[in-house]
């Protein structure tokens, strides 16, 4: 049986695991695919580097990725390098030439997925990217295949392991953000430059990919409203606890009427919500669909072996398609929905205010909410010497009205400071 | 564009939801498939029954299911009747004639899935059955597709909503099994004859389907060791609580060396385990794979709309395959693994004994464990007048050694009674 020939672009943590799995599982893979998988070549940045006991002929290594992609004996291109360029050039070249592509490159898919999908259509090629979101969790395939007889209304996910580790640790120990980040860095959960994680860029890229699949529309990273977790304080975490909640960095993609709202920000969720118990560096994605109801997918979102598992699953799928002479469902894009501005997203706020403890304060504060048409769900007031703390949770309202309310509260002279402002999510779902 | 013609067998709770979804989502489905889906006919038991506002021409209804299946203008057969016969005859007929089959029939798949798979191979037809296990949760497709580059080592599931509702309610209120069952019946979560649920038959059928897919081997319901929840007492639930555990009816399928162990029984799991927070009538399946690590899939396991969502997803998949002129991955069966007897399954026991409170009791009890080579993990002893309670949790041991230990403990005259014996699972996973 003619083998399926794979060009591997990148041989770092994920790439070397892919090589190891292809080698160790060769027999199983041949049985599952109906033909053996062979590595045609591996593009690396430097040839000289020590690759330990990587089970591969060193002659397969090359620094000429584009040359490897163009070779006639390559059927499938697997890209685990990341970044926009030169990855985009390689993958477009492969797809236009009809080669199947398996990629874990969330940044490229989120910034310019359309170019890849168009190249795939042009070349009649498969484009698979299960590993780009939530690592090992089989999530994209279910979204794009199992649920396509249903209508997804909302996707809420914890899709960044670093920030989930930091927030879980703040929740468990009461640590500050900076202490928890330091610990995460020491343990290898955060990178030396943690910006992409803690500022929500990584989660925003994944949110764009999820929203595109869930709503059959093109959503790019630039469409995602993004707030990171650097301003989450130990006081916020304590406030959440007092409310029976925990704080998570959520990505939320919702279909509202005929538009799409996609945002990434920290939010309080009730401890009874299925996402609340997703701890440490785990990922989970909660999906709400019209007929299926509530679904959740949970697992490891990163790491060499989990990501490689997702890549392998895609390699098997595209290889089977090649042998059958077919192409899988391409991008299911038929609803080019407009992006709803963040101000029109509907959410709830939890606001904790330090106020002067005197008569009329609550009336003044409530007046500001009323002025912006924001309905208050609960108020908790506790005295403390000559000042008091007001903890207010609103009903659902447009984000613009909520931010305007907070801005005006800051102007009130009876408000000494705003101790904490956090969105609250997941109350409907429990 | 030539439509895809569907014959629907059965029009009860699930079937009428399928009709409704096909009608409501007609536009979306056409876009996703590339051709419209038409109902060619609906086989029902009685024609006269009032079907409310079912959006379908009454002329499409027939009592001749086999005749409908055989019609030349039928491309896809959707079966939501259940039971072994006549469903098997209908589906074998359809598959051998090359018609795609979508079924939710777990009993048939678990008892005689081989016959269906063989007929599918003979006819070159698709056989999809996402709705047969865990209703709306996209689970089978990920198991058979996304993870096929990985090696699944163990699947632990809560796959029966009725028993999960009963056990959740016993856990929440301290109710007895019979009171909780009565409540579940009153609320419609349990059927008038609850045997299939509470005795674990339903879960055993699903366990067989999951094990077959996870381990690429044929496992039938008869291969599954099965114990129901009728003997779980309020005292068991209280013991579990004292241990920081909760009791769930689990289906556990494990690959051990080159054999498969499949069992369904109630077990204690730590409250920190992801499966512990799966409450009410929800289902969840926890998967452990060599590379992917721990994964969990959560959602509604039953009900008309959730099950119909899974059926629709399969209809879209088989319709796309037909239009592309291809057949999906068939049964991935290449490892015909032997079934490991229950006695060789490795588990832990929690045993609660009422013993005489006198010297030497612990030594005598410990001697019985040692004789059967069962290692004790923890012992908790509490006095109560002239008797004491010993709560023992073992290390992992073969089930045969554990049952022999319990049998011999019953013979000891210092053991007044054995208050509770339960397996403990999921300790490794947390």
TrEMBL record, chains A, B:
Look up the record and name the cofactor or cofactors this protein needs: a metal cation
Q: Which Gene3D superfamilies match?
A: 3.30.70.260, Dihydrodipicolinate Reductase, domain 2, NAD(P)-binding Rossmann-like Domain
Which residues take part in binding NADP(+)?
A: 9-16
Q: Which UniProt keywords apply?
A: Amino-acid biosynthesis, Metal-binding, Methionine biosynthesis, NAD, NADP, Oxidoreductase, Sodium, Threonine biosynthesis
Q: Into which EC class is this enzyme placed?
A: oxidoreductase
* The protein's annotated pathway: Amino-acid biosynthesis; L-methionine biosynthesis via de novo pathway; L-homoserine from L-aspartate: step 3/3; Amino-acid biosynthesis; L-threonine biosynthesis; L-threonine from L-aspartate: step 3/5
Pfam families for the chain = ACT, Homoserine_dh, NAD_binding_3
EC assignment: 1.1.1.3
The residues responsible for catalysis, as annotated, are 206 (proton donor)
Instruction: Please give a single GO biological process term from the UniProt record.
Output: methionine biosynthetic process
Q: Which GO terms describe its molecular function?
A: homoserine dehydrogenase activity; metal ion binding; NADP binding
Give yes or no: UniProt keyword Repeat: no
Q: Does the keyword Amino-acid biosynthesis apply?
A: yes
Q: Which reactions fall under this protein's catalytic activity?
A: L-homoserine + NAD(+) = L-aspartate 4-semialdehyde + NADH + H(+); L-homoserine + NADP(+) = L-aspartate 4-semialdehyde + NADPH + H(+)
- Which branch of life, at top level? Bacteria
Q: Which residues make up the binding site for NADPH? A: 106
Q: Which residues form the ACT domain?
A: 350-423
Q: Which residues bind L-homoserine?
A: 191
Which family does the UniProt entry place this protein in?
Belongs to the homoserine dehydrogenase family.
> What does this gene product do?
Catalyzes the conversion of L-aspartate-beta-semialdehyde (L-Asa) to L-homoserine (L-Hse), the third step in the biosynthesis of threonine and methionine from aspartate.
Q: What is this protein called?
A: Homoserine dehydrogenase
